[in-house]
Amino acid sequence: MASPTITLNNGTKIPAIGLGTWQSKPGEVKSAVEYALKEAGYRHIDCAWAYGNEKEVGDGIKASGVPRSEIFITSKLWGTFHTKVEECLDQTLAKLGTDYLDLYLIHWPIPLNPNGNDPVFPKLPDGTRDIDHAWDLKDTWKQMEAVYKKGKVKAIGVSNFSEKKLEEILPTAEVVPAANQLELHLYNPQHKLLAYLKSKGIVAQAYSPLGSTNTPLFADETATELAAKYQLQPADILLGYLLAKGMVVLPKSVTPARIASNFKGAIAALEKLDQADVERLDGVAPGGKQKRFITPPWGVDLGFDNWP
Ligand SMILES: NC(=O)c1ccc[n+]([C@@H]2O[C@H](COP(=O)([O-])OP(=O)(O)OC[C@H]3O[C@@H](n4cnc5c(N)ncnc54)[C@H](OP(=O)(O)O)[C@@H]3O)[C@@H](O)[C@H]2O)c1
């Protein structure tokens, strides 16, 4: 069974189901990636410099025996590298053991002090995040365009960009971002932002599609009811719903049975859910269940609705 694909605005095809790797621990992530590629049908792995596990992800890719050309690899530029995009990219390429990425994203629209007190989360003496307020996001995007033009990455995009943040880079962008990776799930569907992305030809990628660690979504009334109706798992309904809305989904698991069932179940749910089901699921968050799970304390206004 093959993953459905979506065509990005530069013609590149992206498999709509990718394996997430955030919080996948050393000693777990290599076998998870190997299993996903070799046994479960995945052809898309979602990585990031900041996850600190790209070397092991690369080992898993190699161990799978699946040719590099058949795998879609995404990684992300960390905040402390906004002024030196190619340096971060080169570190990621070396760790993953590849000479190109299929998609490279700006992880957050937040440039962090590259010379601060920590390489990942630099903080000021008062404990707040050490943000490089003088740096302009437009210049980060220019550097993203440069590595794209060099051919080191096949497509470029953003992550955690609200409409407000996209409007900071779009007026001077030569290349329109191909994708925006966002927290998107039953309880945080971001209907307004999705309509805006569609109008710009930017594909939405759903992170934390199951509601992340210790999710309450598997117990949601509507999801469990539809799961029973179609003899699927709630996880399948959560993923199939997002696929039906034209998004890429990035479920993370290091558990072989879940890695396999998320892939198969997402496709099965995509086939079964009808328009009325999708509309019903669309109404769950506006009906009182709206909730975000990933809200790092950046201390700046990102321009998102429903940010605490
Ligand atoms: N761009 C960003 O800023 C950003 C932020 C967050 C996430 N992401 C990306 O999106 C990916 C997914 O998000 P996420 O990791 O936050 O959360 P998620 O995929 O929504 O949920 C992962 C959690 O659900 C469990 N799980 C997975 N499948 C399951 C199933 N079928 N039944 C029961 N439990 C299941 C996993 O446990 P086990 O692993 O123990 O099986 C894990 O605890 C990340 O890994 C990362 O690649 C990106």
UniProtKB/TrEMBL annotation:
Would you say which domain of life the source belongs to?
Eukaryota
What are this entry's molecular-function GO terms?
A: oxidoreductase activity, acting on the CH-OH group of donors, NAD or NADP as acceptor
Residue ranges annotated for the NADP-dependent oxidoreductase domain, each copy included = 17-284
Keywords, sorted A to Z: Oxidoreductase
Site feature Lowers pKa of active site Tyr: at which residues? 76
Q: Does the keyword Cell wall biogenesis/degradation apply?
A: no
**Where along the chain is substrate bound?**
107
Q: Which residues form a coiled coil?
A: none
Checking InterPro entries in the record gives:
AKR, Aldo/ket_reductase_CS, NAD(P)_OxRdtase_dom_sf, NADP_OxRdtase_dom
- Catalytic residue positions: 51 (proton donor)
PANTHER family for this protein: ALDO/KETO REDUCTASE
Q: What is this protein called?
A: NADP-dependent oxidoreductase domain-containing protein
